[in-house]
From TrEMBL:
<feature type="domain" description="Glutamine amidotransferase type-2">
    <location>
        <begin position="2"/>
        <end position="191"/>
    </location>
</feature>
<dbReference type="GO" id="GO:0004066">
    <property type="term" value="F:asparagine synthase (glutamine-hydrolyzing) activity"/>
</dbReference>
<keyword id="KW-0315">Glutamine amidotransferase</keyword>
<keyword id="KW-0547">Nucleotide-binding</keyword>
<dbReference type="InterPro" id="IPR029055">
    <property type="entry name" value="Ntn_hydrolases_N"/>
</dbReference>
<comment type="pathway">
    <text>Amino-acid biosynthesis; L-asparagine biosynthesis; L-asparagine from L-aspartate (L-Gln route): step 1/1.</text>
</comment>
<feature type="binding site">
    <location>
        <position position="288"/>
    </location>
    <ligand>
        <name>ATP</name>
    </ligand>
</feature>
<feature type="binding site">
    <location>
        <position position="97"/>
    </location>
    <ligand>
        <name>L-glutamine</name>
    </ligand>
</feature>
<protein>
    <recommendedName>
        <fullName>Asparagine synthetase [glutamine-hydrolyzing]</fullName>
        <ecNumber>6.3.5.4</ecNumber>
    </recommendedName>
</protein>
<dbReference type="InterPro" id="IPR001962">
    <property type="entry name" value="Asn_synthase"/>
</dbReference>
<dbReference type="Pfam" id="PF13537">
    <property type="entry name" value="GATase_7"/>
</dbReference>
<dbReference type="InterPro" id="IPR006426">
    <property type="entry name" value="Asn_synth_AEB"/>
</dbReference>
<dbReference type="InterPro" id="IPR033738">
    <property type="entry name" value="AsnB_N"/>
</dbReference>
<keyword id="KW-0436">Ligase</keyword>
<dbReference type="GO" id="GO:0005524">
    <property type="term" value="F:ATP binding"/>
</dbReference>
<keyword id="KW-0028">Amino-acid biosynthesis</keyword>
<feature type="site" description="Important for beta-aspartyl-AMP intermediate formation">
    <location>
        <position position="403"/>
    </location>
</feature>
Amino acid sequence: MCGIWALFGSDDCLAVQCLSAMKIAHRGPDAFRFENVNGYTNCCFGFHRLAVVDQLFGMQPIRVKKYPYLWLCYNGEIYNHVKLQHHFEFEYQTKVDGEIILHLYDKGGIEQTVCMLDGVFAFILLDTANKKVFLGRDTYGVRPLFKAMTEDGFLAVCSEAKGLVNLKHSMTPFLKVEPFLPGHYEVLDLKPNGKVASVEMVKFHHCRDEPLHALYDSVEKLFPGFEIETVKSNLRILFDNAIKKRLMTHRRIGCLLSGGLDSSLVAATLLKQLKAAQVQYPLQTFAIGMEDSPDLLAARKHCPCEQRGSCTFSVQGTSFLLWKNLHRTDEKELESSPKVANHIGSEHHEVLFNSEEGIQALDEVIFSLETYDITTVRASVGMYLISKYIRKNTDSVVIFSGEGSDELTQGYIYFHKAPSPEKAEEESERLLKELYLFDVLRADRTTAAHGLELRVPFLDHRFSSYYLSLPPDMRIPKNGIEKHLLRETFEDSDLIPKEILWRPKEAFSDGITSVKNSWFRILQEYVEHQVDDTMMAAAAQKFPFNTPKTKEGYYYRQIFERHYPGRADWLTHYWMPRWINATDPSARTLTHYKSAAKA
């Protein structure tokens, strides 16, 4: 995880423009560099580094002796770089995974390059010999990328929009900033004056399609056909591989563990892979919530087994509970102590926060997110606070998480109301296509704000494309249970406790608080005193685009506009459930959830 920034054809002083790049310094707390492009005095790269791979030679822009005309700035991880290096017999100058982009581009051009990358990435590639600039972003937009381009050819690119909004350009008083679409690359001509002209924007991968790099990976052969046992075996193979390849790092690995199905499967498989790789440190897992939250109670069912105890401490007003290896023999103590962390044997950390601390974090969270989407903001508060804790109190830097599973495996409660398996399939693909606006955005910004790198194995190209290739009726909820196929796949694995494997879906923003007093209700009660009826009556006039329909939405929009005035179009629409008459995105407002909670 790093922060990348570049300008082409700037009319303003680069020394002044470069100040904007410091807005994303949180993405790379280990080092930073600004570098002008030889022969183009109005072109510049900026880079903030989080040193995860090749700590000695990993600074960017990457330039190697063999290709002195190529400049690369990228944010991401290319998991198959060693396999491709050996297969094509490339001579590497560094151990940086991104160097593979230069060699692949030289060998086969930009289209073959992006299709061969197994990983997550956002990059800016400059070819001064052929006068080209290339931008690219991974299939799901796991790594962010924004751009601004004027009619006269000024181009600005950055990992986050906040690094572009204050840039100056003589021809444009208000620079239009927009997200670069996932799964695409763009080709631009570089003119002698440093300006650019867009040539083409190309979609290089659809989530349904098996990626080209599958030809070169080392996954054991999958069995053909859609018999249930065959499918389950293939899914286990691909999921194991998705975790294994993501161990690529020189920094300590940790894992978010809410106690739900997705994070529990990730944590348990991760621990298995770390043991196989003979990693010497214990896996740190992290959960957050208020007292009596379902997520904390469930996550405790995974903490260090026969030797455990706890201590509570405080950092900047927020309480933290760390389950540690201490001898306890009292049977009652064993029953009430942590049991998904117990099962897998991790060093489990709990972060406890109260409603006041959550509300106080809203301004920072919305600034970091660059969105005002209601469900995204709600879910981000907990993730922001736990990321803050991880950075300040541990040495875990590479953090695994379960993002993407709900979209891929039809895990949202409203999928029970899908009119048909085919409609459910369409909705799943729509959600995956829009991840970069919602869950992936949340996961990246809340962790990157504290200099952490997030890894999301459920969005692995091989795993997700195989899952989407299965017959639609195989993937829908069954017997009143969402993600039935995923649960069934690991039924006999003993990876996680059965009660966790079959635990009903909890939204992250719901699971961090008790059923009696949901986080969304806490927020709504607070906002009731911040936004009055007169303000709501004038909402359509004040906010004609994406007009907020609730006081909570109005409150978030106010904060957003204070930080990013006139940028409301970054969010195309609010996230809401389909096929039901929902007035709130929380799962706890849905009939299915209420009946499940009573049961």
